[in-house]
Amino acid sequence: MKRVLIDTDVILDFFLDRQPFSENASKIFALCENRIIIGYITPVILSNVYYILRQIARHNRVIEKLNQLLSIADVLTMDKNVVINALNSGFKDFEDALQYFAAVNKGNIDAIITRNVKDFKTSEIGVLTPESYVRTINAML
Question: What global pTM score does this model have?
Fold first, then answer.
C-alpha cells in the first residue's frame, strides 16, 4: 500500500486547510515528502486544483503551490486508452473514471485515497479515505 493515487479533494483539504480533513491530508503528504510512500496525481487533478486555488490566489502563488506538490508527487500518464476506458466504464463521474483508469494504466497503484469512496464502487484498486489510509499505513510501519 505504498503507491497511492491522491484525489483532488485530499489535495484541496491540505492546501485550503479544510478542517477536520486537513490533518490526515497533511500526514499523507508528509509520508510522500519523506519517501515512505509514493504519491501520484493526474493532469486532471492538477488542472482542477489550479482552477479552484486560482479563485482565491494569484496565478504565481498557485503555480508555486503546484510546483511544491510536484516535488513530492509523480504524475500518471493519461492517453487515449485511458479516456476510452473512462468513457465506456460504469463510472457515474467521468473525472473519477479518468483518475481510476490512469491508475489502472500505471499498473502498480496500491490504493486510491479520496473522501469520495462511493464514487469508486467498481474499483479493483483499494479505495480508502485519508483517515483509513493513515491508520492502515501507521499499522504497517
Answer: 0.95
